[in-house]
Amino acid sequence: MNITDVKRVLIGEPFPTSMEMHERLDKIRALAIFASDPISSNAYATEAIMGVLIVLGSGAIALTLPVGLAVVSLVLLVIFSYVQTILHYPGGGGAYMVAKDNLGTVPSLFAAAALLSDYALTVSVSVSAGVRAITSAFPEAFHYRIEIALVAILLITWVNLRGVRESGTIFAIPTYAFIGGGILVIVIGMVRYFGMFGAPPIEITQVNIAAQSSPVGFAFVWIILRAFAGGCTALTGIEAISDGVQAFKPPESKNAATTMIAMGITAMSLFIGITFLSTHIGLVPNEAESILSQMTRRIAGPGFLYYWVQIFTALILLLAANTGYQDFPRLSSFLAADSFMPRWLKNRGDRLVYSSGIVMLAVISSLLVIVFRADEIAMLPLYALGVMLSFSLSQFGMFKLMGKVAKLKPGESMKTNVTEIHYEKHTLWKRILNAVGAFVTFVVFIVLLTTKFKEGAWVVALAIPVLMAMFYTVHRHYDRVAAALSTVGLTEASVNEVADVVIVPVGDIHRGTLLALTYAKRISNDVRAITVVTSPEMKDRFLTRWKKFPHITDGIELSLLEYDFRDVLVPLVDYIEHVNKTEFCDKLCTVVVPEFIPEKKAAAVLHNQTANRLRSRLIDNKDIVIIEVPFHIDSQLERIACETEETPNVDVVEENTEE
Questions:
Q1: Are residues 563 and 461 in the same domain?
Q2: What is the mean pLDDT of the chain?
Q3: Is position 420 within any domain?
C-alpha cells in the first residue's frame, strides 16, 4: 500500500472541481461550522467576567449581568457591521478584504496577522476548554489533558480534510445538542428561580468573599473595563462567516447574512441566560469546575441532563476549533493570492478544501497546546487580542466604505478595488454604528493589551509584527521572482546561452553508469566522464572496465581525478565548477547524474546516497543544469531475466559496483 492508497482510505476519493457547488453549505450546516466558536464561548465568557470582578468581593458578582449586557450590545454592533461586510464583500475575506479595500495594504496585513493568530488560538483554546469540561465531569482524566487535546486536534484535522460538507454534517449534531441542552437548562432554571408552575425553588448560596482591594475612581472603572474585556471573549469567531461567504450555497451573501443573524441571536440568548442565572443563584468561579457545570448541576441535578450538557459542552468546545479550521486556510489563501504567503496555500486539495492551510493550523495549535499545557485560562489573555484589533479595523473600513456609498445618488454605482457599491439609504446611521463599534472594540483592544500584557498578551503583540515582517518578506521574494521571469525587454542576447558540454560523474562502470553515458551522448557531442580515484589499484580496475565497452565510451573524454582524501565529492564539485565558470562562463552547463532507485524505498538506506549529496552541493550554482538518469533495480532484474531466460544470481552479477 503506497501513500496514495493510505490517503484514499483516510480522506476518501478526490472530488472533481465540478462538485464544488455541491460541497457548499446550507444554513443549517453552516451554523454548525461557523458559529460553533461564538456559541461555545458561552461555556467560559460569563466566568471570564466573574474572574475579574471577584477581586472586589462577592458583592461585585452582581455587576456581572450589567457588564454582560454591555458585551451583548457590542456583539450586536459587531454583527450589524459584519452583515454589512457580507453584503458588500460577497467574495469573502472579512476584515482583511475590507481593510485592503478602504484602509490600504498595511492595515489589511495588520488585520490578517491579528486574525491568523486568533484562529490558531481558537483551536488551542477551544480544544483545551473542551478537555476541561471532560475533566470537570471525570476528574481522573485531568493528568491526561494534553494527550486528550492533541488527539482531539488530530481528529478535527482529519474530519476537515475530508471536506466542508462532510465536516458540517458531523459537527451539526453536537452543536445543536449543546444549544438544545443549554436552552433547556436555562428554561428550567428560570422556571425554578421565579417559582413558576409550582416548580421547586433553586438552592441559592450566600457567598461571602472578602474584597482583595477597595479601588475607587479610575481604579474601579479600570476593573470594570477589564471585566468587560474578559467578557468580550464571547465575540471571538463572529467574523468567521464574513471570511467564508463563498462556502455557502447561492445566494451566498443572503444565506451568510441570515446565518450571521441566527448565530448572534442564539449565542447571546445563551449568554444572557447563563449570566443571569449564575449571578442570581450565588455561583462563583472555581478552578476545579466551570460556572456552566456548577449552574447545570444546581438546576438539573447530577442526572441525565447534567451529563448531556457536559458531554455536548465538551464536544462543542472541541469542535469550536472548527471555526479556526474553516477560516485560517481561507484567509491564508487570500494572502497567498496576494503574494503575502506561500502560493501553495491557495491550492485546494483532493476534497476541495485548503489542505495545506488545515495541516499548518493543526501543527501551530498543537504546539500552543503543548506550551500552555492545555490550559485555556492561561491562553485567554492572548485569545481576544487579535480579534479585537481585526474588529476595529474592519468596522473603521466599513465606516469609510459607507462614506463612499453616501456620495452616490439613487441609481448610481461605483467600483472599488475589490467590490462594487451601489446607492443605499440610511448611510448616516450605518456610519455612526460602524464608528461606535470601531471605537469600542479599539478601547477593548487597548484594555486587553495593557491589562493582560504581562499575563501573556505580549506574545500576540509580538507575533503580529513578526507575521507582518513575514508577509513582506514573502512578498519581496515573489516580486523578485516576477522581475526575474519577466519577458519585458527580452532580447536574444539577454537569454543565457547553453553550453554543449555534458559532464557525467561516474563511480564505477556498470549498467547504471553506462545508461547515463549513453543518454549524455544523445544530447551532446562533448561528453566528459569524470571519476575520482584514490589508489593505483582503483585506477587500473576502472580503466580495464572502461575499455570493455568501447561502443559506449568511444568519443567520451575521460578525466581521472586522483585524490588522497575520503570525501570524493570535493574534487567532483571543483571540476564541475571549473568547467562551468572558466570554460563556459555565463553559460548553462549540464550534469547528468546516474542514480540507483532500489526496489523498495526502505532499501535506500543501504546505499551511500552519492547522487543526492552531489545534487545538493551543485544546486546552488546558478548556471548548472542537473539531469537525473534513474536506474531501477527491480525493472532491470526483470529485463536481465528475460534476456537470459532465467533468474540471475544477484550475488555474482559482474563485480562489486559503486554508486
A1: no
A2: 86
A3: no
